[in-house]
Amino acid sequence: MSATKPQPQKLVVGTRGSELALTQADATEAALAAAFPGIGLVRQIIRTTGDRRTDVSLASVAKSEGVFDKGVFIKEIEDALADGEIDIAVHSLKDLPTVLDERFELAAVLERAPVRDVWLARDPCHSLENIPAGSRIGTSSVRRAREATHHRPDLTTCDLRGNVPTRLRKLAAGDACDAAILAEAGLVRLGLLCQVPPAPVQKYQVPPAPEPIQNHPNLFAWRLAPDHFHPAAGQGAIGLEIRAGDEAARAACRAIRHRTSWLRILAEREFLRLLDGGCHTPVGIFSTLENDELHLKARVFPEGEGPPRQAESRGADPIATATTLYQSLA
Predict the structure, then answer these.
(1) Which residue has the higher pLDDT, 204 or 135?
(2) What CATH topology corresponds to 117-224?
(3) C-alpha to C-alpha distance for 278 and 269, rounded to whole angstroms
């Protein structure tokens, strides 16, 4: 006789209050409700330092708070988790550090959304390849800035802060930047970009056709092939963080953990751990999993000038494949 799946009675879910964060909390709660009918779910919205301080760069906020760049988006949520105010913290996984504080653990990820970055501009001819030299590219991500100038050294980058709707408004106004780079997952989850299935083979095309952005008739989008413009580790994934040793929360999270997404995430985060990198490190990594074989490609940028190191590997085991990737960096 199979063991009965433990039935948690109540779970408190913690999340940021942005529109995208709330959408991710909706997805988490829907998955928990489907796995455990009748469970009591309570949502606690937590305003983080990163949500309050949008007037300066992430690096400046992080320095003043004594945390890594994107730690400004999780500190208050982890405080609530440690204090027992919430049971499960819902994060955009790329906001989490590679190695968590020993008080916490990453228990699960939901099925991963598209991982690509999206290039946005006001002119339908201003793709990454065709935008004029000297154009200003808005992003708060060091990795996106380095990827952009890796492909187009004649561009400049500038800091673009705020939630997704705010960044789109700033781009549409034309004062902050000439183009911007955002994650496809957020645009799709907010209904701003239509969801399309990934191509069987993500091959680079120069340039893809521009697409419209919902409710922004003066903005155009290009989905950037991830084998060319590498995404962040964990991009597109919703991560569920719990207190270490909380068996009830762990069982609940594992019941909704998406296997293939989890295996890809394990490999990507292990590569960052070996690299001693984190959310502030300019590194892109792209993974696929087909017929139980992982394929990893990575690009690691130096702190200063110079070309990135690159590598790729294949294998069945996430940790071993990530180790091979790390050892193959050239």
Answers:
(1) 135
(2) D-Maltodextrin-Binding Protein; domain 2 (3.40.190)
(3) 9
